[in-house]
Amino acid sequence: MDILVCKTKYTGVSYHRVDEPARAVAEADVGVRVQVVAGLATTMSRGAEPVVLDVDDQGADVVVLQLPKTTELLQCMRILQARGVAVVVEVDDLLSGVPFGNVGHGLVAAGKAKRVAECAREADAVTVTTPALQAEYGGHGRAFVVPNAVPRRLAELPPAYERDPGVVEVGWAGNVGGHPYDLQEIGTGLRQALDAGRGASRFTVLGQKWDARERLGLVEEPVEVPWIPQVDGYIQALGELFDIGIAPLRSDRFNAAKSWLKVLEYSARGVYAVRSATPEYERLGLGWRARSAKDWAKGLTKGIQDADWRREQARQAREVVLDRHLTEHTVPSWVAAWERAAEHRADALRRGPVAVG
């Protein structure tokens, strides 16, 4: 079976949902060839509102569109399906739930969320990261959960818990612009933990700290390490910079549908995690659950003050990742979704041209 994947421009999601799965499928040698492209070659009509007349499928049995947000890509889907090529839509976020104030809210305002939903409705299959997204985009019964995972080469790097730090680094990876409401979930918990471990701990942001000090009520300004756009380098840095990683998420529709990826990355690198009690973090089951400022303070303080306990928690979490959550473990799920898409397209053609959704 030949698969052509058209990936989005967003580096992180393309890495986890296209590039690394394609690499894992190739290494598994399961009789599936995956080609990744940055865009589809099309023939367009002339005029004020061009229409797609043809699209090059490069001989693929299945074409995967990652986060299709345009009318033109919907037109591409219909052309491919009429030709007998199955189309899979890959979605990793609840676009209809992006909150106002988040940098991604412009997608909602521009109608892109509705376009993604329309593409998903007409797809032969949809692949998503979480059950919540499966419910959102899989009303037709053809949405498949393929959870996020990490490559073995990164999970097998020297883990953070093997270090003996003089100062325990409590870290957060992100920026306030992309997470305008999440840090506040910690309340005074981080301040309490840092105050209790003054001189033995500090707070570091990998990304953009902006006004994190004010949001968290901290006495000292956080250390800021510039964001690392290259994903392998970013995940490697987590284990080199942090001893404890925090993953706060506000309780809302968007975050409830989010993947468990941040805690998974912390755990893969041997970093003890303290995290919110979102559905996906709970489903993963790794890290210290925090529902209140008191919980955050307790989990962080124990991690700072009891090094042996912190290392053991991190070690156990990393073992779970190595055992269950590597990209290679997801290969059967990716292949099964693509096969189901091909079966649906073949059935649709047998039924006649009316069945495209």
Structure description:
This protein has 357 residues and is α/β, with parallel strands linked by helices. The protein has two domains: 2-149 and 328-351, Rossmann fold (3-Layer(aba) Sandwich), CATH 3.40.50; 152-324, Glycogen Phosphorylase B (Rossmann fold), CATH 3.40.50.2000. Helices cover 43% and strands 18% of the residues. The chain has 15 helices and 14 strands. The chain has a six-stranded parallel sheet, with helices on both faces. Strands 11-10-9-12-13-14 form a six-stranded parallel sheet, with helices on both faces. 46% of the residues are buried. The model has no long low-confidence stretch (mean pLDDT 96). One of its GO terms (molecular function) is transferase activity.
Beta-strand content bin = 15-25%
User: Uncertain spans, ≥5 residues at pLDDT below 50?
Assistant: none
- Strands, total number: 14
N-to-C order of helices and strands: EHEEEEHEHHEHEHEHEHEHEHHEHEHHH
Measure the end-to-end span.
Answer: 22 Å
CATH class of the largest domain: Alpha Beta
CATH topology label of the largest domain: Rossmann fold
Radius of gyration: 22 Å
- Number of separate helices: 15
Helical content class: 40-55%
Overall mean pLDDT score? 96
